[in-house]
User: Which sequence fits this backbone?
């Protein structure tokens, strides 16, 4: 009624491409095409590998290795993120358990969670089962949450968080400083680690405001007895400032990109810089 619309072949092509990718991702989950790479974290006090973040990759049979930016949004929108997240958690725990006997004893693994996973009433039980199957101690698993997850007023989320902490799993706030301004969740939830967002680290050498923010986050974390990890560290100048500010750990291309588990094992004992 008194309206009109434009048809674009490009729009149709994009829709078809997305539908094809969605179907291929569903098949990938069924056929175990997803693999986990690990980005190492360096402890600054002794310059030793102390943990690694699990990052999913899709070994596409035709297109090769695909980064999560290609498919994570589709997984979130279709609900496949729950199955995807479960596969990543299982792989991460299994591989981290294996590397304890390969020279990386005490090196933990961190895994990102989707809010859809955390909303499941039995999610903590899934994590417990995964730890039991893999043999990985709960203390060596760290689950990364976002500020927006912690601000959701859902009983299931609070219940899962408390249950995870009770079993000894560590909890981290990812991309800290980019979400909600309220810090009340730091008091309400049993957080262990704050990960400073790469956006603040990127301008650390040149931006006075970013230096002030990073320094303030580290001081606050120290007063709350939380560990601090700086993400996206790519330059020696950033590293030196973070060391001066008292940051506990760094993660970024300066130390290592995300690598297969075989290369992670080889990294132990190598000079950091």
Assistant:
């Amino acid at each position: 009624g008194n309206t009109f619309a434009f048809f674009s072949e490009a729009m149709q092509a994009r829709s078809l491409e997305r539908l094809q990718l969605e179907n291929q991702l569903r098949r990938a989950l069924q056929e175990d095409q997803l693999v986990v790479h690990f980005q190492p974290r360096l402890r600054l006090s002794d310059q030793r590998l102390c943990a690694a973040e699990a990052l999913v990759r899709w070994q596409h049979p035709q297109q090769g290795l695909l980064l999560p930016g290609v498919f994570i949004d589709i997984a979130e929108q279709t609900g496949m993120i729950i199955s995807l997240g479960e596969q990543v958690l299982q792989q991460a725990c299994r591989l981290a358990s294996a590397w304890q006997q390969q020279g990386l004893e005490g090196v933990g693994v961190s895994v990102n969670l989707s809010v859809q996973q955390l909303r499941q009433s039995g999610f903590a039980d899934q994590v417990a089962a995964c730890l039991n199957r893999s043999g990985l101690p709960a203390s060596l698993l760290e689950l990364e949450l976002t500020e927006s997850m912690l601000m959701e007023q859902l009983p299931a989320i609070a219940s899962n968080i408390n249950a995870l902490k009770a079993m000894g799993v560590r909890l981290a706030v990812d991309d800290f400083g980019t979400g909600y301004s309220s810090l009340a969740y730091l008091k309400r939830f049993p957080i262990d680690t704050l990960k400073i967002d790469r956006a603040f680290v990127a301008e650390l050498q040149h931006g006075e405001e970013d230096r002030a923010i990073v320094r303030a986050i580290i001081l606050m974390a120290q007063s709350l007895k939380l560990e601090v990890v700086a993400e996206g560290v790519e330059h020696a100048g950033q590293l030196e400032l973070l060391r001066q500010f008292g940051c506990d750990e760094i993660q970024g291309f300066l130390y290592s990109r995300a690598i297969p588990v075989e290369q992670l094992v080889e990294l132990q004992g190598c000079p950091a810089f």
Notes: The longest strand covers residues 48-60. The chain has a mean pLDDT of 92. The first helix runs from residue 9 to 30.
